[in-house]
């Protein structure tokens, strides 16, 4: 066509431009959908010339070129095979139309999102429109470092971050996840301490409105006589007992209480667990909410309750002076604290006193007779377990709290303190009694077992024998690493670490979903002589909950570590922090830091021995990525 155009160079250029214009006009005017409808019934490959003659009746230069351009541009109705084109089947065309429409809408929503981010930067009170919430969630996921299995979703997040960074004029010389975090921080959607771990592990922080409404509608009678007959008929009235609760001073979800009475032969010990099963029924919104969370999570700045706070911190909590349904473990003991008999009973109780751990420690020092007896019973129970091979492992621990001014405060936990030992031993005792009862009566529960720890004389991980590991944090760490991981099964099994033949967890139904399920099994058994569900059904529930529980456990561990690193970050720059060398067999030595009692890698002088105390400085720290660089002073 170009060769047929004669004249001067300028004239030929003008003629070619005119030809191109006519071809473009033909391409723009062509209705590819209409052309497709002419040939869709005869699915085969067509040349452009065939299509021209079929559609136009002729094959002129302008029409031929225009049709070819239109077919190349519009890939919806025809599939190209080099110089040939094949009409797609109608179903494929419909699918492609839907995909194109979705792509168009996505691009439109992305533009709206970016515009909103710019406005939100100026006014952080603007509510997030419903149509862009998915994109805000995508930014959250990118900030949390979630790697999507769908490449398209990954690409979408990257493009959205890039556009937003440019519009908000934020520096892009940081990693993609930090860019997304800065975007959300800039618009006031994130705070500096926003919990990325909860996002990363998809922990539902807020309870669904329907679950909250169910909790609010639950009425807890103030007197036993006001409870329904079917609840009163099989429960003992134990409200005469002086039951006490012992928890941290900040705890509101109190799920266990202890009572002690002197008898003619010795003592009657009562361990009372709040009955959540009667209030949170299976297959309700409350039940779904609890199962999805699997456990409560306690953080420095918030508590994510398994159940709505109206229930966990009020209606089901063993509050002082309030009548509550309970599942009680009653033990008769002689004056040497040997167990003569035990029984489990649904009951009503009323907590007479609420104590904190510090108060109990103080009262024990003052010689409170009841608390001293309880402590002696706990010590005797622990001694019996140790004689059966139980392992006592010391662990130093602190709990971080965020103050109103943003600073981090640490509360040191004395796990070996008298009050905590007392409560811990009582719960172990109750759980072991319930495990034995379940095993004897064939009630499906989730038994916890643990194999015996590695022998003390076996080689330690750092190449030194246990006898050569110095006393203190290094030896405690070595002992913890030798403990076998516990396992669960519906078959009874021994728990070597606790020195018990059978053990379950059933004393925290407010905080742990499987404890609630165990309670349902027992309550149903006492009410109807049959458990709530069969073993296969129970195993299915346990399998589902295990996934949620693992996510919650990891999120809880990461959250706690974040706040402890934030504490390190707020310390005075250059101020030394002490630590103990607990491992030397790794590429970089592992140090357990004083003040926060977590292990971190650090560069220390050669020749330092296991158990040595070292003084360190923090040269770099990023709590969100858990990056810390420690160097010896």
Fold and architecture overview:
The protein has 633 residues and is α+β, with helices and mostly antiparallel strands. Helix content is 43%, strand content 18%. The chain is built from 19 helices and 20 strands. Strands 4, 5, 6, 7, 10 and 11 form a six-stranded mixed beta sheet that branches. A five-stranded mixed barrel has the order 16-17-18-20-19. The chain has a three-stranded antiparallel beta sheet with strand order 1-3-2. It starts with 8 loop residues before the first helix and ends with a strand.
Low-confidence stretches: 456-464
Number-wise, the strands total 20
What is the oligomeric state here? single chain
How far apart are the termini? 82 Å
Coarse shape = elongated
- Helical run tally: 19
Question: Sheet with the most strands?
Answer: 6 strands, mixed
CA-based gyration radius: 35 Å
Mean pLDDT score: 92
- Class based on secondary structure composition and strand pairing: alpha+beta
Proportion of strand residues: 15-25%
Q: In which range does the helix fraction lie?
A: 40-55%
Task: Write the SSE topology.
Elements: H1 9-29, H2 32-39, E1 46-47, H3 48-55, H4 61-73, E2 78-81, E3 84-87, H5 90-122, H6 133-143, H7 151-168, H8 176-186, H9 196-200, H10 209-217, H11 229-232, E4 236-237, E5 243-247, E6 256-262, E7 266-274, H12 285-293, E8 297-298, E9 303-304, H13 309-315, E10 323-334, E11 339-356, H14 357-366, H15 369-387, E12 397-402, E13 408-413, H16 418-441, E14 447-449, H17 473-482, E15 487-489, H18 513-528, H19 535-570, E16 577-583, E17 590-593, E18 599-603, E19 613-622, E20 627-632
Parallel strand pairs: 4-11, 5-11, 18-20
Antiparallel strand pairs: 1-3, 2-3, 6-7, 7-10, 8-9, 10-11, 12-13, 14-15, 16-17, 16-19, 17-18, 19-20
Helix pairs in contact: 1-4, 3-4, 5-7, 6-7, 6-8, 7-8, 10-12, 15-16
